[in-house]
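Lecture notes, part 5. Sequence design as translation. It can be helpful to think of inverse folding as translation between two languages: the language of shapes and the language of residues. The source text, in structure tokens, appears below.
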């Protein structure tokens, strides 16, 4: 394996990974903070560094619709979006999954209107969590590159054939320049097999896609999709293992950080995890038994791995970067569901913070953890704590 260390913005690292994956079609529509990805790919295609059809469409709905057509005829297909753009795609996301089309998409996660905000949180992706897509989170620029390389192999595996979404936090990650290790073309060619969609649309060999289903078939079709999504976890884990064997960078659905035998565990997802690590280091140096668990795989949700990672803790503090209006915060809801089989359950505190681009510094994480322990000790686990709200 050959790799080189470069300083690169995370969005451009995503574009580089797409180039190395030799995609056939890119459907592009600009929206902050995703635009640098498709701008980077526009330059790559214009400079002749990638032989691909670059389709500048009129909306995000059209972008995903174009992806349906290109993927259905057997073309390796990519797009990217964020926030309101992902919501405009929402109708078509379900079609992509139900047709089992292995489209790969990057989402530069951003808050939703209103009020209008271009800054990052997880509101956009949480709206799509039931769409049938594989959904994975990166924490830094290196992971953004690595997850994109893995995404094509995962999505196109004959036992998967599902669209795959890589989430990178808007601005906190998408616009940050970091030192990265890139792979060369030969290595990526060997890692990602040539793509051959088994059921392509072909006038000479007609097939039916997306046909109408009566009530006596609809439930079975939806169950088949759910079964396929749940079964994809085995392939995801296998691909990450093979990628680790190739690069030395190993990934798992749930990743622990100094969490063994800790009384209190903080659960995070995305780029804020690195600030949380700094806080955990300081807290543990003071002799406090607090650790960190990070979710990388959001869908299919890794219930068994979550249960293994957190079941022995006394307190669980879950940070969500999204409000589910009128209901439980999404990640905390899943964590509580994972713990349901236990007779003796940890105290689970739900904290929502980092909305609309508001930062959570290492010092803030110390405050957040202290607040979470206080709520757990008092048994006040039936409320959602809004962290950092100004009175």
């Amino acid at each position: 394996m050959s790799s080189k260390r470069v300083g690169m913005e995370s969005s451009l690292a995503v574009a580089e990974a797409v180039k190395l994956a030799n995609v056939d079609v890119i459907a592009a529509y600009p929206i902050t903070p995703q635009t640098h990805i498709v701008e980077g790919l526009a330059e790559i295609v214009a400079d002749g560094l990638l032989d691909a059809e670059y389709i500048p469409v009129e909306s995000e709905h059209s972008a995903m619709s174009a992806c349906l057509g290109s993927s259905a005829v057997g073309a390796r297909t990519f797009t990217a979006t964020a926030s309101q753009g992902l919501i405009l795609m929402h109708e078509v996301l379900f079609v992509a999954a139900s047709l089992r089309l292995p489209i790969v998409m990057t989402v530069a996660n951003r808050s939703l209107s209103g009020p209008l905000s271009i800054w990052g949180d997880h509101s956009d992706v949480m709206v799509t969590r039931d769409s049938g897509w594989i959904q994975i989170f990166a924490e830094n620029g290196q992971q953004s590159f690595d997850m994109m390389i893995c995404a094509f192999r995962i999505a196109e595996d004959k036992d998967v054939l599902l669209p795959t979404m890589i989430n990178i936090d808007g601005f906190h990650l998408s616009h940050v320049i970091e030192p990265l290790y890139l792979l060369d073309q030969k290595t990526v060619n060997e890692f990602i097999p040539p793509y051959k969609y088994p059921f392509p649309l072909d006038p000479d060999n007609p097939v039916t896609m997306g046909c109408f289903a009566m009530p006596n078939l609809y439930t079975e079709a939806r169950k088949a999709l759910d079964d396929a999504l749940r079964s994809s976890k085995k392939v995801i884990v296998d691909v990450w293992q093979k990628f680790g064997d190739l690069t030395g960078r190993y990934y798992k659905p749930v990743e622990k950080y100094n969490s063994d035998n800790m009384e209190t565990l903080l659960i995070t997802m995305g780029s804020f995890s690195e600030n949380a690590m700094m806080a955990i280091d300081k807290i543990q140096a003071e002799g406090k038994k607090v650790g960190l668990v990070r979710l990388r795989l959001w869908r299919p949700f890794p219930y068994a791995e979550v249960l293994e990672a957190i079941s022995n803790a006394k307190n669980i503090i879950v940070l969500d970067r999204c409000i589910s209006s009128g209901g439980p915060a999404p990640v905390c809801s899943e964590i509580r569901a994972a713990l349901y089989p236990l007779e003796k359950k940890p105290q689970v505190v739900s904290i929502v913070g980092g909305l609309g681009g508001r930062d959570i510094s290492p010092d803030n994480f110390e405050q957040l953890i202290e607040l979470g322990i206080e709520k757990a000790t008092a048994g006040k686990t039936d409320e959602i704590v809004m962290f950092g709200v100004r009175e």
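The translated text above is only one of many valid answers, since several sequences can fold into similar shapes. The chain is about 40% helix and 20% strand.
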